[in-house]
Amino acid sequence: MTSFMGKVLCADLSTGACEAKQIPPEVYEALLAGKGLAAWYLYNNIPAGADPLGPENILAFAAGALCGTGAFLSGRWTVACKSPLTGGWGDANCGGLFAPAIKQCGYDAIFVSGVSEKPVYLFCDGKSAELRDASEYWGHDAVETEKTLHEALDGVCRKKPCVACIGPAGEKLSLIAGICNEGGRIAARSGVGAVMGSKRLKAVVLAGSRPMPCADPDRVRALSKELGQKLLKLTIPSGLGVFIGAGGRMMGRLPSIPLDGSLTSIMFREWGTPANTPLAITSGDGPIKNWGGTPQDARLMDLAYSPEQINRIETAKYHCYSCPLGCGGRLNIRGRKYAGYDETHKPEYETIEAFGPLLLNWSMDSIFQLNEMLNRAGMDTISAGNTVAWAIECYENGVLTVRQTEGLALNWGNTEAILELVRKMIAREGFGDALADGVKRASERFGGKEYAMHVGGQEPGMHDARNDPQLGVHFAAEPAPGKHTVGMSIQYGAMSLCDVCSWAPPARLHLKAEDLEDTEEMALISKANACYSMLTDGAGGCYYGEMMGVHMWKLVDYLNAAEGWEHDGDHYMEIGERIQTLRQLFNVKQGVDPASVRLPKRMLGEPPLNAGPLKGVTLGSHRAQVSAHWRAFGWDEKTGVPLPETVARLGIDKLTEAAP
Q1: Does residue 249 have a pLDDT over 90?
Q2: Domain shared by 157 and 280, yes or no
Q3: Is the pLDDT of residue 452 over 70?
Q4: 69-92: per-residue pLDDT in tens?
Q5: Are residues 512 and 645 in the same domain?
Q6: DSSP states of 19-87 as a string?
Q7: Rg of the Cα trace of the chain?
Q8: Is residue 61 left, alpha or beta, with left meaning phi > 0 and alpha meaning psi from -120 to 50?
């Protein structure tokens, strides 16, 4: 017995057919589930040149291998497709309860192809699967859609169903739209919501109750108990959030950054991801003023965005499936300035940074409102914030006129104008229509390409590569470019991958300046980060589990217990390498030139900033580091194309023979 269900559901919206397909055991052994299973199926079944918004594209909903086994921090699901933003591999990740719902229906993944003539939703209860009319839900936001579907189905189904759906952004084919569950929690990146909207698929509703297998549940339970006991010992006095910004200032001045991965669990349990905001503002990690500013431009903004302010209005914490941390929360925003809603999810760090320091917007209340607006619309806050930042800088520099912006004075920190522009983007109304497809396409239409911060068509996450050059490697070399969760030097230092992987360099304390160098050590660090990230996504693990380090969140031990295997860390890191290589091959098949994906000059420090912790920093060795990263993977160091001998060594050619 393993933890895999052994089959997937394939739904063709053009014909209405829903069919279960068996997956060969060797696919799971080579790629696990989650992102790995999705990469295998999409690579083999999406034809070269497929229109991302056409019937040949396939939208994958995939649960991780560890989901349902009792392993802590392993309840996440992956959405994957050909991205309409980049033209290559696209994926997004989300928590909540949807991942176990996939497996409780008897599947490891759901693959949706074709285009429906009318709005539909896919319903599955573990016994049958069918497409149902969704015309009455079309036009509703994500929260309303989920609520009305529950009203219609709760009590009818044997168990309360889980819902993943799109809001107006996905329906209107905004290329920065995502897919929501749990009242607006969003798998946001890569334009996955636009693909779902193009198929006229409003929702996927799952109400199965099948047991989820595990080879050795007692062993898994023991590992989770051990982790839980460690977490209980880690506490922090309340009220210390106001001092986080001071810690960031110190980090910005230090020549090297020590980090114990257990610190992340303390911070996120107390404050959630907003704990990172004041740290990022002051340390140089968080981009300011469309990536062109310094902490001087946002002086004291770390106090305006203190996580303590958010905690004061938090009414309840919540946990993802199988998570002991509970970094999420619900906020009471009734009666606050700008607030058109009574409550909202606690905004994530990325949202606060994208609509706060990036725009020099000082209003926390406006971010509560923007967070709820964008969650309900199903629009990516990272992409939306970067796009608004581009529009403001273009307006400030005369690229955009007040006539073009339809009267909006898009100045830095103009909260009312920011709110109105986002409303227009969601509605695809007037000037907002041109921005609803992201910064690359907006700059191609209006100009101001020098202010357009995107990597290969996708807006970057809210962490500055000048602060962590390893991040810049992944921004450019990752098959889904611009993603911030694949690897950073500070992340590598926290994880201690060298203790489970024989070829991973020691997690030593090294100078920040060394991160700028093109060395074999840096190349192996970036490769190890990427391999472990892919392994985590194949398992359905949480990024914050990764950050705790291998001695707290024991992923290798969890996988061996859940699958009945006894593999070492090198074997599992090869699984991660295989997933990453398969995703790169997907891009090559779809005509993406990896060597053409570049960081904007500003993100490289050209010209360098003249103040702050990143003063004078230029990533002069960035392209050499990307080439070294490719070389470490066994890909052509000039083109980024996986070499034939690497494909053979990883057995990918044999896996394609097993494709359905």
Answers
A1: no
A2: no
A3: yes
A4: 999 999 999 999 999 999 999 999
A5: yes
A6: EEEE--HHHHHHH-SHHHHHHHHHHHHSPTT--TTSTT--EEEEE-TTTTTT-TT---EEEEEE-TTTS
A7: 23
A8: beta
